[in-house]
Design a protein that fits this description.
- By secondary structure, the chain is an alpha+beta fold.
- The chain folds into 4 domains: about 50 residues, no CATH class; about 450 residues, no CATH class; about 210 residues, Alpha-Beta Plaits (2-Layer Sandwich); about 240 residues, Nucleotide cyclase, GGDEF domain (Alpha-Beta Plaits, 2-Layer Sandwich).
- The chain has 31 helices and 24 strands.
- Strands 1, 17, 18, 19, 20, 21, 22, 23 and 24 form a 9-stranded mixed β-sheet that branches.
- About 45% of the residues are buried.
């Protein structure tokens, strides 16, 4: 085979979009804040099709992001992607607003109950305001739960309950009728500060601003009210200092939670986006394959073949399944270019193919306009049908309009080439058998006696006229003026059929033109499809589809049917295993939160409680233990900084799920134990007197209520532990809450009763207040329940996102399977190297895909006596059984191409019972060239091995047919023609692709078959000289008259040295059969 010469370079470049320069962005694995993978930077492109748990994404490095550690940089560099994520993030946060509303209701209802228990007239204003807040919260809950507000308003809803909750806290402080102390509502304020990070759909800087402002307002309000009303009662400095440490702790926990939630949400978002992206890409590719498939095969045939892909189907236990059906009242149109030889003499092969491509692309547009189904392109012949596979009553009228339009269309070629070319069109109406034959290079074909007559109507017609049979006139409905065609005087087959023919003289009823029918104007073809979508538009469409998919999923998915209400585990154990495998395994940063709580609580404790050696030792021991719990897991990722045993233990810890859970739970228990120990370090004896300022040696705890605030921070820390699942967190949260409540109300009640006596006793209001021990129990329960709801909500969100990704992956797999089937069909329609160029690209109809091959081989193998075998009677099911047998023959031929020895041979097509193949066209088969591009004088055996293989293939065809004859008691024979030389291979009609080869080499090969003798292989002298080098033997036939070539000396192959011993081919007739 010669080196390929590209006739038309295909522009496959796509514009890439980058919203940020590479200097301002890096790539990061979004895997969460894992101790062993914190901030792993990746270089390279983002892999949008990666549906695994690690998704690479460009991270913004500009602005304030530069100031953050690499592990805390999370904002996407792509602003469009970041905007889409923010919209998605808002929707996720908005769903959490119900939790915030529930908390606000808890607070209001609890406060109202406490006020009512110890009711006085001064408590009417706060009760009234809190009652209004209750109503607003209930209304908000109903509106959000049942989505009774618009999406636009829905975006702002999280702020309303947050503002309500803050207002409720300040109402309790500002309208409190009892003595105001700095510790009032500090626990609620800490909780509000934390919720600012986990509930509000805002960037981190805004969350920090709102939380800090709320803490600042609380501090200012408390200081001002305390100083104005009771300036001599308490020294508030220490208490305010304690408050600040608690607020700082709540904010740090909120920031940690924010980063974990944000990174996990981004990870889930990217995974969902990646899965959807792959799904969309595969869908688009599948649709393109399907479009390509349906452009060649009718839908009912394509659907059946796709359904059967991968199965070896044998019908009736004897024959392969044939995709063939009979259609009645079908008009068949054949159109041939008259004067094509004249064009060939004035144009190069490449120019000729380009002209044919443009002309046939126009014919395809006309076929679409006139509801024709193009069957095949045979050299310069175009034929199509109307009335099948979908029957139409106007099939004949449409076919005539098609023929007239083709005659008009050739005028452009006539002007372009300045030759006297024209179209000769023949139409016949009858019954056809339509389907595909063989196992490779499928093309929809129609066969039958009426198809043969339609072909003769074309050859017996006149240039520039539409020639129709008498059977076609029966369906004309008087829409055309006719004149005698006299086809029987020009074509023997028409005369033998005794058929009258006619020529179209004029159109009586014009075809109704419309906007959709304006296919081309002034010879220019307009593509109805918009093929100019660039990469940016595709990305925008993907983002839009992703957001719409998220909205739709939220509206339609009922996750309650997929998970257990109590354990929150999936009913599907395989899905639960996958989810658990994708859950963040460990995070030292989350455990670091326990150290933060311990330190902040200790400094707060130092501000308001006696400084004893016992409390200091407790803090030191707790800090050491929590440091070990935090630092040890880092050893696996930084082995050089730790001793070997620590590294081994860390690796073991990360491998064992039960050990990781135990490690995390132990850290929480150490933290809780330290805070509980602080309580036991206080003197709980009831006393009515204070010693202010506090005596450093005294064990009196004048503000025991702060111990409940420490407990709240411990409960909040439980929610931060991302490595624990819902059930584990609840199993920690509930016992801790119970322990705290028992301590407050049963074990250490005197601690809080002493506080009440000290606070209220001098005002004679003790009888009209609720005991502190009970109020903090209620507070602990309310906050614990709210955290439980929040933990559950987070779990639902993550599991819902996992289901979306899981379903997208499942859909992707189904689509991929469908795509593989379609792709297999496409590769059975076009040669592999051509199909690869078509799949995934969009081409215009007039776009030519062709390549020149300087040294190729071409073979035509026909079965001339098959026509005698073919009959359309009831015994043969109107010819279907005959074609079933032909399908077996062609399929056996196709199977030969699977053999390694024939790897350089590709099937081109079948024409009735004629099999056409070529060699030397496969990719990778090339002739060595010199540096200047000229071909080297390679040995003949190296250059033409593929031609020898093609000749061996001809032998194999004969042997295959002989075997079939022996099994079926038939006497079919092959007549084979072979030739070599330059050809052009390519696809005509990109929207309805038809692969073919053209050139003098193809024409001569065809003539070698048609002028040959049954049972023999004929070739010209040049081919004989090449094949002799491979040991083939020949018999000279002599001069043979070849159409368009004059007389050529031809030879018959007689055998091959070492194979047939120079003897004649098996069962080779010595005389002509026909």
């Amino acid at each position: 085979m010669g080196g390929g010469k590209t006739m038309l370079e295909m522009n496959k470049s796509r514009r890439s979009i980058r919203s940020k320069s590479q200097s301002q962005a890096s790539l990061i694995k979004v895997k969460g804040l894992e101790g062993e993978d914190n901030g792993t930077l990746e270089k390279g492109r983002r892999k949008s099709e990666n549906s695994q748990s690690t998704v690479q994404v460009e991270i913004d490095q500009s602005g304030l992001q530069r100031l953050l550690p690499s592990s805390l940089r999370h904002r996407f560099a792509d602003q469009q992607l970041e905007s889409l994520y923010r919209a998605y993030y808002c929707r996720q946060k908005n769903s959490a607003v119900l939790v915030l509303i529930i908390l606000s209701l808890f607070f209001c209802v609890t406060s109202i109950i406490l006020y009512c228990i110890a009711f006085t007239e001064k408590k009417i204003p706060p009760i009234a305001i809190l009652s209004v807040c209750v109503v607003i919260n209930i209304v908000m809950f109903i509106l959000l739960k049942f989505r009774l507000i618009s999406d636009k308003l829905f975006m702002y809803t999280p702020f309303i309950p947050w503002i309500l909750f803050a207002t409720e806290i300040y109402v309790v402080i500002g309208l409190e009728s009892e003595p105001i102390v700095p510790s009032l509502a500090v626990g609620w304020q800490c909780f509000l500060a934390y919720l600012s990070y986990v509930m509000l759909p805002l960037p981190l800087r805004w969350c920090m601003l709102l939380s800090s402002l709320s803490c600042l307002v609380h501090t200012i309000v408390v200081i001002v009210i305390c100083i104005l009303n009771y300036p001599n009662v308490y020294q508030i400095g220490n208490a305010v200092g304690a408050n600040i440490f608690l607020f700082l702790c709540a904010n740090i926990l909120g920031i940690i939670s924010y980063f974990f939630n944000d990174i996990n949400q981004r990870k889930a978002f990217l995974e969902t986006k990646a899965s959807l992206n792959v799904k969309i890409i595969i869908e688009e590719g599948s649709k393109e394959q399907e479009r390509l498939l349906l452009s060649v095969l009718p839908k009912h045939v394509a659907d059946e073949m796709v359904q059967d892909m991968g199965d070896v189907l044998v019908a009736d236990g004897q024959f392969r399944k044939i995709y063939m059906s009979r259609h009645e009242n079908v008009s068949i149109l054949y159109a041939d270019i008259v004067g094509f030889t004249a064009i060939s003499s004035k144009c190069t092969a490449g120019e000729l193919v380009k002209i044919l491509n443009e002309l046939f692309a126009r014919f395809d547009k006309l076929a679409e306009k006139y509801h024709q189904l193009r069957i095949k392109i045979l050299g310069d012949c175009y034929y199509c049908i109307s009335g099948a596979p979908e029957p139409r009553s106007d099939h004949a009228v449409l076919s005539v309009h098609m023929g007239l339009a083709m005659v008009d269309a050739i005028s452009d070629v006539r002007a372009q080439t300045k030759t006297d070319v024209n179209m000769r069109v023949g139409i016949h109406t009858g019954a056809v058998l339509g389907g595909v034959v063989g196992q490779k290079q499928w093309q929809f074909d129609v066969l039958g006696k009426d198809v043969s007559l339609a072909n003769k109507m074309e050859s017996g017609g006149l240039a520039g006229r539409v020639h129709i049979s008498h059977s076609t006139t029966k369906f004309m409905h008087g829409e055309f003026e006719l004149e005698p065609g006299d086809g029987d005087q020009r074509e023997e087959a028409i005369r033998m059929a005794g058929m009258k023919t006619y020529l179209i003289k004029s159109v009586i009823k014009p075809y109704p033109e419309g906007t959709l029918d304006e296919i081309y104007v002034g010879g220019m073809i307009f593509d109805q499809d918009d093929d100019d979508n660039n990469e940016q538009n595709k990305e925008e469409n993907l983002n839009k589809l992703l957001y719409e998919a998220i909205v739709e999923k939220e509206a339609t998915q009922d996750i309650g049917k997929r998970i257990n209400f109590i354990t929150m585990h999936y009913h599907d154990t395989n899905m639960e295993e996958l989810f658990d495998r994708n859950r963040q395994k460990f995070s030292s940063v989350a455990i670091l939160g326990t150290c933060v709580v311990l330190v902040c609580c200790f400094f707060s404790y130092v501000c308001i409680a006696p400084k004893s050696l016992f409390s200091i030792l407790t803090f030191i021991i707790g800090a050491l233990l929590l440091t070990v719990f935090t630092v040890f897991p880092f050893a696996a990722s930084s082995p050089k900084r730790f001793v070997g045993c620590a590294v081994s233990f860390s690796q073991w810890l990360l491998r064992k799920p039960w050990l990781r859970a135990g490690w995390t739970i132990s850290a929480i228990l150490v933290l809780a134990a330290c805070n509980i120990v602080y309580m036991f370090g206080c003197d709980s004896n009831i006393s009515n007197t204070f010693s202010l300022p506090l005596n450093s040696e005294s064990l009196n705890c004048e503000y025991p209520v702060y111990f409940s605030y420490y407990g709240i921070l411990v409960l909040i820390e439980v929610t931060v532990l991302v490595q624990l699942g819902f059930l584990a967190k609840i199993l920690i949260l509930v016992p801790l809450t119970v322990v705290y409540c028992v301590l407050y109300a049963i074990v250490l009640p005197n601690l809080f009763d002493r506080y009440d006596i000290a606070l209220y006793g001098s005002y004679n209001t003790l009888a009209t207040t609720v005991s502190t021990k009970y109020s903090i129990v209620g507070k602990a329960i309310a906050i614990s329940l709210t955290l439980a709801f929040y933990i559950r909500h987070n779990e639902v969100v993550m599991r819902k996102l996992f289901i979306w990704k899981y379903e997208a992956d499942e859909a992707k797999e189904l689509i991929q399977k469908q795509r593989e089937k379609n792709e297999a069909l496409v590769y059975n329609i076009l040669p592999a190297h051509v199909a690869r160029d078509f799949i995934g690209t969009k081409k215009r109809d007039e776009e030519l895909v062709s390549q020149a091959y300087d040294e190729a081989g071409v073979i035509f193998a026909s079965c001339p006596n098959f026509n005698d075998f073919y009959t359309e009677d009831s015994v043969n099911n109107d010819g279907l059984e005959c074609l079933r047998f032909l399908n077996e023959i062609i399929s056996d031929y196709d199977e030969l191409l699977n053999e390694a020895r024939f790897k350089n041979i590709i099937k081109i097509k079948t024409i009735g019972s004629t099999y056409m193949a070529a060699s030397g066209m496969n990719l990778g088969y090339s002739i060595p060239k010199k540096e200047n591009g000229a071909k080297q004088d390679a040995p003949v055996k190296e250059r033409w091995q593929h031609l020898a293989d093609l000749t061996d293939f001809a032998y194999a065809l004969k042997e295959t047919l002989d075997r079939i004859n022996s099994q079926s008691f038939n006497s079919f024979v092959l007549r084979i023609g072979i030739n070599q030389g330059p050809i052009i291979g390519g696809v005509i009609g990109a929207k309805k692709p038809h692969f073919d080869i053209w050139g003098n080499t193809v024409n001569v090969s065809s003539r070698m078959e048609s002028t040959g003798q049954a049972g023999k292989i004929q070739c010209v002298e040049d081919t004989m000289l090449i094949l002799k080098e491979f040991g083939f033997t020949f018999e000279k036939r002599g001069f043979v008259k070849v159409k368009g070539k004059g007389e050529l000396i031809t030879y018959f192959l007689t055998g091959k040295d070492g194979k047939n011993g120079g003897s004649p081919l098996p069962n080779q007739p010595q005389d002509d059969i026909f």
